[in-house]
Specification:
31% of the residues lie in helices and 13% in strands. The chain has 234 residues and is α+β, with helices and mostly antiparallel strands. The strands form two sheets. The chain has a five-stranded mixed β-sheet, covered by helices on one side. A two-stranded antiparallel ribbon has the order 1-3. It is globular and about 45 Å long. The protein starts with a helix and ends in a 15-residue tail after the last strand.
Protein backbone atom coordinates (compact mmCIF):
# COMPACT_ATOMS: atom_id res chain seq x y z
CA UNK A 1 0.00 0.00 0.00
CA UNK A 2 2.79 2.40 0.86
CA UNK A 3 4.44 1.78 -2.51
CA UNK A 4 1.14 2.49 -4.29
CA UNK A 5 0.68 5.72 -2.37
CA UNK A 6 4.27 6.76 -3.06
CA UNK A 7 3.80 6.03 -6.78
CA UNK A 8 0.60 8.06 -6.88
CA UNK A 9 2.20 11.01 -5.12
CA UNK A 10 5.20 10.86 -7.46
CA UNK A 11 2.87 10.84 -10.47
CA UNK A 12 0.97 13.87 -9.16
CA UNK A 13 4.20 15.78 -8.59
CA UNK A 14 5.37 14.89 -12.10
CA UNK A 15 2.08 16.03 -13.66
CA UNK A 16 2.15 19.26 -11.66
CA UNK A 17 5.72 20.01 -12.68
CA UNK A 18 4.98 19.20 -16.32
CA UNK A 19 2.12 21.69 -16.31
CA UNK A 20 4.27 24.38 -14.72
CA UNK A 21 7.09 23.94 -17.21
CA UNK A 22 4.80 23.80 -20.27
CA UNK A 23 5.87 26.97 -22.15
CA UNK A 24 2.35 27.63 -23.40
CA UNK A 25 1.10 28.06 -19.82
CA UNK A 26 4.09 29.71 -18.13
CA UNK A 27 3.43 33.42 -17.57
CA UNK A 28 6.41 34.13 -15.33
CA UNK A 29 8.04 36.46 -17.89
CA UNK A 30 4.84 38.47 -18.43
CA UNK A 31 3.84 41.71 -16.72
CA UNK A 32 0.76 43.90 -16.64
CA UNK A 33 1.51 46.80 -18.95
CA UNK A 34 0.09 49.33 -16.50
CA UNK A 35 2.65 48.19 -13.92
CA UNK A 36 5.35 49.37 -16.33
CA UNK A 37 3.46 52.20 -18.08
CA UNK A 38 1.12 53.49 -15.33
CA UNK A 39 -0.49 56.20 -17.45
CA UNK A 40 -1.45 53.88 -20.32
CA UNK A 41 -5.19 53.92 -21.02
CA UNK A 42 -6.82 50.51 -21.39
CA UNK A 43 -9.83 49.70 -23.52
CA UNK A 44 -9.57 45.91 -23.74
CA UNK A 45 -12.05 45.22 -26.52
CA UNK A 46 -12.00 41.43 -26.25
CA UNK A 47 -13.02 41.57 -22.59
CA UNK A 48 -16.09 43.54 -23.70
CA UNK A 49 -18.83 42.81 -26.24
CA UNK A 50 -17.82 45.74 -28.45
CA UNK A 51 -15.67 43.84 -30.92
CA UNK A 52 -16.15 42.19 -34.31
CA UNK A 53 -17.48 38.99 -32.70
CA UNK A 54 -19.99 40.79 -30.47
CA UNK A 55 -19.23 38.86 -27.26
CA UNK A 56 -16.47 38.51 -24.69
CA UNK A 57 -13.67 36.43 -26.15
CA UNK A 58 -12.47 33.18 -24.59
CA UNK A 59 -9.46 33.66 -22.34
CA UNK A 60 -10.12 37.30 -21.42
CA UNK A 61 -11.00 37.06 -17.74
CA UNK A 62 -10.01 40.59 -16.73
CA UNK A 63 -9.77 43.97 -18.54
CA UNK A 64 -5.98 44.12 -18.35
CA UNK A 65 -3.14 44.03 -20.87
CA UNK A 66 -0.19 41.66 -20.48
CA UNK A 67 3.16 41.59 -22.31
CA UNK A 68 6.59 40.11 -21.93
CA UNK A 69 8.83 42.20 -19.71
CA UNK A 70 11.14 43.06 -22.64
CA UNK A 71 8.26 44.34 -24.79
CA UNK A 72 6.72 46.30 -21.91
CA UNK A 73 10.03 48.04 -21.19
CA UNK A 74 10.34 49.07 -24.84
CA UNK A 75 6.72 50.24 -24.84
CA UNK A 76 7.46 52.43 -21.81
CA UNK A 77 10.30 54.10 -23.70
CA UNK A 78 7.98 54.83 -26.61
CA UNK A 79 5.25 56.04 -24.26
CA UNK A 80 7.65 58.40 -22.49
CA UNK A 81 8.63 59.93 -25.82
CA UNK A 82 4.99 60.35 -26.83
CA UNK A 83 4.09 61.80 -23.43
CA UNK A 84 6.71 64.51 -23.96
CA UNK A 85 4.85 65.40 -27.15
CA UNK A 86 1.51 65.66 -25.35
CA UNK A 87 0.08 62.19 -25.96
CA UNK A 88 -0.89 59.10 -23.98
CA UNK A 89 -1.08 55.62 -25.38
CA UNK A 90 -4.39 53.76 -25.44
CA UNK A 91 -4.20 49.97 -25.62
CA UNK A 92 -6.87 47.75 -27.16
CA UNK A 93 -5.06 44.42 -26.96
CA UNK A 94 -1.67 42.93 -26.10
CA UNK A 95 -1.07 39.29 -25.16
CA UNK A 96 -3.85 37.15 -26.65
CA UNK A 97 -4.20 33.49 -25.56
CA UNK A 98 -4.47 30.86 -28.28
CA UNK A 99 -7.94 29.97 -27.00
CA UNK A 100 -9.05 33.48 -28.03
CA UNK A 101 -7.68 32.93 -31.54
CA UNK A 102 -9.59 29.64 -31.64
CA UNK A 103 -12.73 31.58 -30.68
CA UNK A 104 -12.17 33.89 -33.65
CA UNK A 105 -11.81 30.88 -35.94
CA UNK A 106 -15.06 29.30 -34.76
CA UNK A 107 -16.85 32.62 -35.19
CA UNK A 108 -15.49 33.10 -38.72
CA UNK A 109 -16.61 29.60 -39.71
CA UNK A 110 -20.18 30.40 -38.61
CA UNK A 111 -21.32 32.41 -41.63
CA UNK A 112 -24.75 32.97 -40.10
CA UNK A 113 -23.40 35.13 -37.28
CA UNK A 114 -23.09 38.61 -38.75
CA UNK A 115 -24.30 40.62 -35.74
CA UNK A 116 -21.39 43.08 -35.91
CA UNK A 117 -20.98 43.25 -39.67
CA UNK A 118 -22.35 46.78 -40.02
CA UNK A 119 -19.83 48.08 -37.50
CA UNK A 120 -16.61 46.23 -38.36
CA UNK A 121 -16.81 44.67 -41.83
CA UNK A 122 -19.68 46.16 -43.88
CA UNK A 123 -17.74 45.98 -47.14
CA UNK A 124 -16.29 42.46 -46.72
CA UNK A 125 -18.22 39.21 -47.12
CA UNK A 126 -17.70 37.11 -44.00
CA UNK A 127 -16.90 34.06 -46.12
CA UNK A 128 -13.73 35.85 -47.31
CA UNK A 129 -12.26 36.68 -43.90
CA UNK A 130 -9.82 33.73 -43.97
CA UNK A 131 -8.93 34.21 -47.62
CA UNK A 132 -8.18 37.91 -47.16
CA UNK A 133 -6.14 37.35 -44.01
CA UNK A 134 -8.38 39.04 -41.44
CA UNK A 135 -8.72 35.79 -39.44
CA UNK A 136 -5.76 33.43 -39.04
CA UNK A 137 -5.02 30.22 -37.14
CA UNK A 138 -2.10 31.83 -35.28
CA UNK A 139 -1.56 35.36 -34.01
CA UNK A 140 1.65 37.13 -33.09
CA UNK A 141 -0.24 38.41 -30.06
CA UNK A 142 -0.08 34.92 -28.56
CA UNK A 143 3.72 35.15 -28.44
CA UNK A 144 3.39 37.95 -25.89
CA UNK A 145 5.32 40.83 -27.45
CA UNK A 146 2.67 42.42 -29.68
CA UNK A 147 0.39 45.32 -28.84
CA UNK A 148 -2.54 47.09 -30.54
CA UNK A 149 -2.71 50.75 -29.60
CA UNK A 150 -3.47 54.31 -30.57
CA UNK A 151 -2.88 57.82 -29.23
CA UNK A 152 -4.94 60.12 -27.03
CA UNK A 153 -4.44 63.87 -26.72
CA UNK A 154 -3.35 64.29 -23.10
CA UNK A 155 -4.85 67.77 -22.86
CA UNK A 156 -8.32 66.97 -24.22
CA UNK A 157 -8.57 63.25 -23.49
CA UNK A 158 -9.72 62.67 -27.07
CA UNK A 159 -8.50 59.85 -29.25
CA UNK A 160 -6.58 61.00 -32.31
CA UNK A 161 -8.23 60.35 -35.67
CA UNK A 162 -6.21 57.66 -37.44
CA UNK A 163 -8.34 57.34 -40.56
CA UNK A 164 -9.97 54.03 -39.60
CA UNK A 165 -11.05 52.42 -36.32
CA UNK A 166 -9.44 49.49 -34.55
CA UNK A 167 -10.34 46.07 -36.00
CA UNK A 168 -11.95 47.55 -39.08
CA UNK A 169 -11.74 44.97 -41.87
CA UNK A 170 -10.72 47.05 -44.86
CA UNK A 171 -7.89 48.53 -46.89
CA UNK A 172 -8.08 51.76 -44.90
CA UNK A 173 -6.07 50.07 -42.14
CA UNK A 174 -3.03 49.57 -44.33
CA UNK A 175 -0.12 51.88 -43.50
CA UNK A 176 0.39 52.52 -47.23
CA UNK A 177 -3.27 53.40 -47.86
CA UNK A 178 -3.37 56.53 -50.01
CA UNK A 179 -7.03 57.36 -50.68
CA UNK A 180 -9.31 59.42 -48.49
CA UNK A 181 -10.68 57.32 -45.64
CA UNK A 182 -14.50 57.24 -45.57
CA UNK A 183 -14.44 56.73 -41.77
CA UNK A 184 -12.20 59.66 -40.92
CA UNK A 185 -13.52 62.87 -39.43
CA UNK A 186 -10.57 64.87 -40.73
CA UNK A 187 -8.66 65.35 -43.96
CA UNK A 188 -6.15 62.71 -45.00
CA UNK A 189 -3.17 64.93 -44.24
CA UNK A 190 -4.14 65.08 -40.56
CA UNK A 191 -4.84 61.41 -39.93
CA UNK A 192 -1.73 60.48 -41.84
CA UNK A 193 0.29 62.81 -39.61
CA UNK A 194 -1.33 61.25 -36.53
CA UNK A 195 -0.35 57.77 -37.69
CA UNK A 196 3.19 58.91 -38.33
CA UNK A 197 3.56 60.23 -34.77
CA UNK A 198 2.65 56.80 -33.41
CA UNK A 199 4.74 54.85 -35.91
CA UNK A 200 7.87 56.95 -35.46
CA UNK A 201 7.91 56.49 -31.68
CA UNK A 202 7.18 52.77 -31.79
CA UNK A 203 9.73 52.01 -34.50
CA UNK A 204 12.37 54.10 -32.79
CA UNK A 205 12.01 52.01 -29.64
CA UNK A 206 12.36 48.60 -31.19
CA UNK A 207 8.96 47.65 -32.57
CA UNK A 208 8.11 46.50 -36.08
CA UNK A 209 4.88 46.85 -38.07
CA UNK A 210 2.81 44.73 -40.42
CA UNK A 211 1.41 45.90 -43.75
CA UNK A 212 -2.29 45.54 -42.91
CA UNK A 213 -2.93 47.22 -39.53
CA UNK A 214 -1.73 50.68 -38.54
CA UNK A 215 -2.26 49.88 -34.83
CA UNK A 216 -0.28 46.60 -34.62
CA UNK A 217 3.32 46.51 -33.33
CA UNK A 218 5.63 43.63 -32.42
CA UNK A 219 8.93 43.87 -30.58
CA UNK A 220 11.86 43.12 -32.89
CA UNK A 221 13.81 40.19 -31.49
CA UNK A 222 10.82 39.11 -29.39
CA UNK A 223 11.85 36.60 -26.72
CA UNK A 224 9.29 33.90 -27.67
CA UNK A 225 9.25 34.03 -31.45
CA UNK A 226 8.19 30.37 -31.79
CA UNK A 227 5.93 29.98 -28.75
CA UNK A 228 2.17 30.53 -28.73
CA UNK A 229 0.95 30.86 -25.16
CA UNK A 230 -2.51 29.92 -23.94
CA UNK A 231 -2.79 31.04 -20.31
CA UNK A 232 -5.83 33.29 -19.75
CA UNK A 233 -5.65 37.04 -19.28
CA UNK A 234 -6.30 37.43 -15.59
Amino acid sequence: MNKIILFALTALVFIGCAKQTDPTMDRSDFVAITDVVPDAILEIRYFSTYNFVGSRIDGYEAPIALMTRQAADSLKAASDELKAQGYRIKIWDAYRPQRAVNHFIRWAENLQDTAMKAVFYPMVDKSLLFEQGYIMARSGHSRGSTVDLTLVDAATGKELDMGSPFDWFGLENHPDYVAESPMSRVESTEWRANRRILWDAMLRHGFTMIDSEWWHFTLAGEPYSDTYFDFPVR
